[in-house]
Design brief:
By secondary structure, the chain is an alpha+beta fold. It is built from 5 helices and 14 strands. Strand 5 and strand 6 form a beta hairpin. The longest helix has 13 residues.
Length: 273
């Protein structure tokens, strides 16, 4: 039996009569992923022509009949036509955590198709708004050289400032926060296990700061668990992070049926019909 992609979430309510009502909600960075982060991203990649592959692993006990074998879908991999970029959906059988949340999508790119290693990777947990991740992937797909940056770090802060986010008073060149002070984006120390081919990231000593990468997260209340988190390796081009940041901070409402419990009361809502 194959495990569903979202075993702990109900089926898409849009396909069933009498399901939860749909709302246009904002702000986007507190709206969650509507329980459809896999579908939103997979549909985007299919539209871009990326190939989808499923890597399965089985669990079998001694003397178990073949028809009783349990199959776990551990990874779904999407690869661009030029094989320079790929997106990997990971289930929680081997969780990799970011901000104490399990990673849902890992996006990677390399400079040459014959290179065995990714030049960089970016990581996204569940409840990252699917619109923001889709815009990141669309920008990545359009990037002729995905390992080569176009523009500097100012692109990211300009993107969120254009939508009303405030630059950090103490770090105006490297950090910003939304008007409710719940969501943040910052250029700084990269968390452990973030994959990057930059030699400085590989050789930095324990007490030495390596290359800085962008981190984004939403903390609905001070000291509360994060709603979502995203981490970009130091070599992720700033213009790609800016595409994510621009969509994340957009003031345009998004359609939702499933609202995060942690931010439900903070969201502005209008019926979709």
């Amino acid at each position: 039996m194959e495990a569903p992609l979202y075993p702990d979430l109900p089926p898409d309510s849009s396909a069933s009569y009498g399901g939860p009502p749909a709302f246009w909600v904002g702000p986007r960075y507190l709206a969650g992923d509507d329980g459809r982060l896999y579908d939103t991203v997979a549909d985007t990649l299919a539209g871009l022509g990326w190939a989808g592959l499923t890597i399965v692993r089985g669990r079998q006990v001694p003397d178990e009949a073949p028809e009783d074998r349990q199959v776990l879908r551990s990874t779904v991999l999407h690869v661009s036509p030029d094989a320079l970029r790929w997106a990997q959906w990971c289930l929680a059988d081997e969780p990799f955590h970011l901000g104490e949340l399990p990673i849902a999508w890992q996006i990677s790119a390399r400079g040459e198709a014959d290179s065995p290693l990714a030049q960089w990777s970016a990581y996204f947990t569940r409840d990252v708004p699917g619109e923001a991740l889709a815009e990141f992937l669309i920008a990545l797909d359009a990037h002729e050289q995905p390992a080569v940056p176009l523009g500097g770090s100012e692109l990211v802060l300009d993107a969120v400032a254009a939508h009303g986010w405030f630059r950090d008073v103490d770090q105006p060149q490297t950090a910003a926060t939304d008007p409710t002070f719940t969501s943040h984006i910052s250029l700084g120390e990269v968390p452990p296990l973030i994959q990057d081919a930059d030699p400085h990231a590989l050789t930095a000593e324990a007490d030495e700061a390596g290359p800085a990468g962008w981190q984004a997260w939403s903390e609905p209340a001070l000291g509360a668990p994060c709603l979502w988190a995203a981490s970009f390796a130091a070599s992720v081009p700033h213009d790609l992070v800016a595409a994510f940041a621009a969509s994340l901070s957009s003031t345009a409402p998004v359609l939702r049926r499933v609202l995060p419990a942690a931010t439900r009361e903070r969201l502005l809502r209008a019926p979709a019909n």
